[in-house]
Amino acid sequence: MKKMNFVMRLDDRQIEAVLDFYRHNVKISQQNHIKATISDETLKLTIYKSGKCVFQGKDAESAFFFWSENFNIPVEENGDKKPYNDDFYTPSIGSDESGVGDYFGPLTVCAAYLSKDDVEYARELGVQDSKNLSDKQIYEMAPLLMKRFVYSLLVLNNKKYNDLITKGYNANTLKAYLHAQTHKKILMKTKDRPKIIVDQFCSKASYQNYLKAFKDPITPEIFITQAESHYASVAMASIIARYAFLRHFHKMEKEIGVTLVKGASKQVDQVASKLIKAGGMNALNHYAKVHFKTTEKAKALLDSNHPSY
Fold it and tell me: Cα 163 vs. chain centroid, distance in angstroms?
């Protein structure tokens, strides 16, 4: 299979965020046109002073779509215009995931069905992308959605997630499988067959390839980035998925008596280091996605005996 390069253009603030995220693998370049390179065994990222960023390697696609989602950068494939609809409240089934970029906590995927009969209620409720809502708002809105709308929710806990990664699955394979499962389950609850919209997390070709391993896969009609900003059904799914993630996240905090930190950052590194010190890697395996680079950063903190950066 031909190796692909993935390219995006970032501003100075976004570049600094990327450099901070990969801070232990950054090499500042001495070349006039290159700002920095980031390299490990699965990813090479070249950042040019023009703002152009080139992703290469085994994890290039995952990293590219991760940052496009984080920075809300639309992705176009083959120069095609995305099938964005003028009507946010288009009746459809939408699916989205949560917890992808969070070191602590599970991976959750939800599919939600917005029927034509429920459009007005969704309008009144003010459904929107979960990233625009506070945790408090999500806790308020998600139960209302779950009571009114047909949905399918899957939660992949950290231990199972880590076991599957160890067996050779990658994060995108797991996401594709969970999306496909929610589509199959939700269609069992609906009388009709509305269009299915998926918030894009990899290329179309890769998604189709992942589905080959799934029995009787359902191909979505629309597969686009930032889908939750363009379709209410995906926004509903994103809210329910985030709600499930938050509930599981706070449950973990109570179990271990530690205040956890969302995302991936220096603060997350420090909390992970404390968990390793207190309970070893076995404890971390139950609460974190241990294949994240955060794990190595946490171990480095222990080795250096440094409480902070």
Answer: 19
Distance of alpha carbon 84 from alpha carbon 95, whole angstroms: 16
Q: Which burial class, exposed, middle or buried, applies to 32 when counting CB atoms under 10 A from its CB (0-12, 13-18, 19+)? A: exposed
Question: The tokens of 57 are what?
Answer: 């390697």
Distances (CA, A) of 14 to 23, 72, 299: 14, 11, 27
User: How far apart are alpha carbons 106 and 155 in whole angstroms?
Assistant: 7
Cα separation, 217 vs 250, in Å, equals 34
- DSSP E strands in 180-290: the ranges are 196-199, 222-224
pLDDT of residue 81: 47
Tokens of 284: 């971390």
For the chain, helix (H) and strand (E) counts, in that order, are 10, 10
* Orientation angle between helical segments 60-70 and 171-187, nearest 10 degrees: 60
Q: Which residues contact 251 (CB under 8 A, 6 or more apart)?
A: none
Q: Which residues pair with 37 in a beta bridge?
A: 27, 46
Phi and psi torsions of 180, nearest 5°:
-60, -40
Render 15-82 in DSSP notation, one character per residue. HHHHHHHTGGGEEE--SSSEEEEEE-SS-EEEEETTSEEEEESTTHHHHHHHHHHHTT----STTPPP
Q: Using one digit for the tens of pLDDT, what is the confidence trace for 212-243?
A: 877 788 889 999 888 998 999 999 999 999 99
- Judge whether 254 and 224 are in contact, CB under 8 Å: no
Residue 80: how many CB atoms within 10 A of its CB?
A: 8
Tokens of 218: 């359902």
Computed on alpha carbons and rounded to an integer, the radius of gyration of the chain in Å comes to 20
Q: If pLDDT is split at 50, 70 and 90, which confidence band does 76 have?
A: low
The 3-state DSSP class for residue 49 equals: coil
How far is it, in rounded angstroms, from Cα 172 to Cα 206?
9
How many Cβ atoms sit within 10 Å of the Cβ of residue 253?
A: 14
Indicate the residue type of 61: E
